[in-house]
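hey m, so remember when u said the tokens were messed up on ur end? i reran from scratch. heres the input so u can diff it against urs
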Amino acid sequence: MFRGVTQLSLDAKGRLAIPARYRDELMSTCSGHLIVTVDPSKCLLIYPYPAWEPIEQKLNSLSSFSPASRNLQRLMVGSASDVEMDAAGRILLSPSLRQFADLSKDVVLVGQGTKFELWNETQWNLQIEIALAFKDGDMPPELEGFSL
């Protein structure tokens, strides 16, 4: 289970060092084999390979006659990239993926249960501001009655 927010830096080659607290789990569940793809919200999604497989199958099973489904297939499956953690626990992000999410040096890795989101630090801070701006009646209906 991946959770928490970690501020990181990409190196000059576009490599991301996966935080040490996640490395053992990633090595045991997928031998460091990860899938990086794009998200419509302009961040990158990082999945252990076994967690990505059913998502890819579901995306590929959508009707290719639906323009919305086809666009989502093109975006997420078409942009998916296989990456391997190196001995230092780093993954190399392709220039096209970095460009999509506007990633340069300062990035934020956000654990989301079975996957990670990787954000440009400025965009992440904007997302937090949006999340904190709930107004009366803006809470999603599925959260009504939810208590922390």
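this time it looks ok to me. The chain has a mean pLDDT of 93. if urs says something different then somethings off w ur setup not the seq
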